[in-house]
Amino acid sequence: MDRKNEITGHILAIVTIIIWGTTFISTKILLKTMTPIEILFIRFMIGWIALILVHPRRLKIQNRKQELYFAGAGLCGITLYFLLENIALTYTFASNVGVIISVAPFFTALCAHFFLKEEKLKPQFFVGFLIALVGIFLMSYQGASVLKLNPMGDLLAVLAAFVWALYSILTKKISGFQYNTVQATRRIFFYGLLFMIPALFIFQFEPNVTILLKPINLFNMVFLGLGASAACFATWNWAVKILGAVKTSVYIYLVPVVTIITSILILHEKITGMGVVGVGLTLAGLFISENKFSMGRKNEVKNECC
Questions:
Q1: How far apart are CA 86 and CA 17, in angstroms?
Q2: Local structure of residue 178 (DSSP, 8 states)
Q3: CA 77/CA 297 separation, integer angstroms
Q4: Which residues form the EamA domain (predicted)?
Q5: Rounded to whole angstroms, how far apart are CA atoms 167 and 184?
Q6: Whole-structure pTM over 0.85, yes or no?
């Protein structure tokens, strides 16, 4: 990989994460008048239509096995991940979810080790992981004891992080097929919407046009559909294609920073002392694990995409 291409990958990942870090806020605002499944389905329908308009040419899949990768990516990265995330936001703070989701790089590295056979895990990796889990526990305890919130939200956020790791591995595989990024993302969105259909009947899906067209709701929905979905999924998948699944996932560490700042400024959420310690431990654990992990494999795997 040439240096210019690598820099492009890093820029794509950073821009994507900055936008994604604010999506928890938009979703939290929409949850006041809409259900999680309503937000999810409408958001990705907008994104899917936008991607069709950008690149209307049909994607021709080479074989059925490749189709299964697209279906799996749609199920994990769209349907399951966002259902878990949106439901988690009904139980806990947006800042909590933002920090907990940042554990995804751990799961991504583990999945890459077992499924992509690319990584050798070092003891420091697990030390950092344990430190981060203690941080997550402190945040969860803060929500349950101080704010009287159900820790179920934090557990759902952890499950969402694991599902996102599976999505990252699948998109890494898909990037090897050398399809157009927009077309590939659109295909993933299609399967995500398809797998979402049963959830429309299980959960409350009764969108109210009047509520949706309120300026604040319309703005946040368009932001989620066009910016955070259509544009960002394409840029993220592009970054994964350039940098690889593990290296790109490191940028998820920035999510809690963006989320916490915006949740304080926009939602006026308050973070207790225990919450601050939890955030600090989570980020410290992630840094220790990734820093040592990268150093340990520096001479073994110079570049994931090579």
A1: 18
A2: -
A3: 28
A4: 8-140, 152-288
A5: 13
A6: no
C-alpha 306: how far from chain center: 25
Are 204 and 37 spatial neighbours (Cβ–Cβ below 8 Å)? yes
- CA pair distance 221, 30, nearest whole angstrom: 8
- Token digits of residue 58: 């049909």
Q: What is the distance of C-alpha 148 from the center of its chain?
A: 27
Decide if 282 contacts 135 (C-beta within 8 A): yes
The CA distance from 31 to 300, in Å, is: 46
Distance CA 54, CA 49 (A): 9
Q: Token digits for 82? A: 């966002």
Listed in sequence order, the residues at least 6 apart from 47 whose beta carbon sits closer than 8 Å to its beta carbon are: 189, 225, 226, 229, 230, 233
Structure tokens that stand for 43 in this block: 């958001």
Q: What is the DSSP letter of 205?
A: -
Distance CA 87, CA 158 (A): 12
